[in-house]
Amino acid sequence: MIVLDPVSLQHSMLTASATKRLLTACALGGVIGLEREWRHKDSGLRTNMLICVGAALFTFMSAALAGDLTPDKSRVASNIVQGVGFLGAGLILHTKSRVVGLTSAATVFVVAAIGMTCGAGLYLGALVATVVVLLSLQTVGFLRISLGGNAFPCFTKSVHRLANCRERLRSRPCILRASSERQRCGECSPRF
User: Fold this and answer.
1) Do 178 and 108 have their domain in common?
2) Same domain, 68 and 156
3) In a domain, 1, yes or no
4) Range of the domain at 167
5) 185 CB-near residues (< 8 Å, 6+ apart)
6) 19 and 48 fall within a common domain
7) Which residues of 65-103 are buried (b: 16+ CB within 10 A; e: fewer)?
8) What total of structural domains would you count in the chain?
């Protein structure tokens, strides 16, 4: 005779639900992370995956920790925004003439929101948000270049590499400057 224990049944259902939510968050954060990694940005694959999974876990655990007696199940999840704001602020750098990392910080913020959406079990909303983010990251840079924006700064220490960079990007609008702030992989790579 098989005896079904209601507590263990509820526990296994919670585990299956949590697993689905966390894996979905991992996948969606990973897709955005791959895009950022492809563009050689500071917040890449691992960062975006971890932020998305962490936000999903905190959102899921917020309701679980509150239990059935407490009506306010969002107390833990509400602090995700503050923590992610702190992480995003660390990605923003102000140099002599420009501010860098704003898009990376905004991406971290929206990845956390996607994680919270997954943690709440709203998979369609999370998927739509991921598609919107990917389209935004891809098309805005392309439109900026198409409209003649200066979207290709080249950071290098070598004057020889600067000349090579100028040759490779001759047909595209770009900013070329020698700088000790950052050494890019290869001779020059587009940044936008």
Assistant:
1) no
2) no
3) no
4) 148-192
5) 40
6) yes
7) ebeeeeeeeeebbeebeeebeeebeebeeeeeeeebbeb
8) 2
153 domain residue, yes or no: yes
In a shared domain, residues 39 and 73:
yes
Instruction: Extract the tokens encoding 44.
Output: 């890449």
Most confident of 11-15, 54-58, 93-97, 186-190: 54-58
In a domain, 58, yes or no: yes
Instruction: Supply the pLDDT for residue 54.
Output: 94
Percent of the chain with pLDDT over 70: 69
Residue 101 near residue 92, CB atoms below 8 Å: yes
Tell me: do 72 and 165 sit in the same domain: no
The residue among 3, 47, 56 whose CA lies nearest residue 64 is: 56
129: CB partners within 8 A, 6+ apart: 110, 113, 114, 117
The total number of residues written for the chain in this structure: 192
Report d(CA 182, CA 59) in Å as an integer.
37
Task: Give the DSSP letter string of 43-109.
Answer: S-HHHHHHHHHHHHHHHHHHHHHHTTT-S---TTGGGHHHHHHHHHHHH-EE-SS-EE-HHHHHHHH
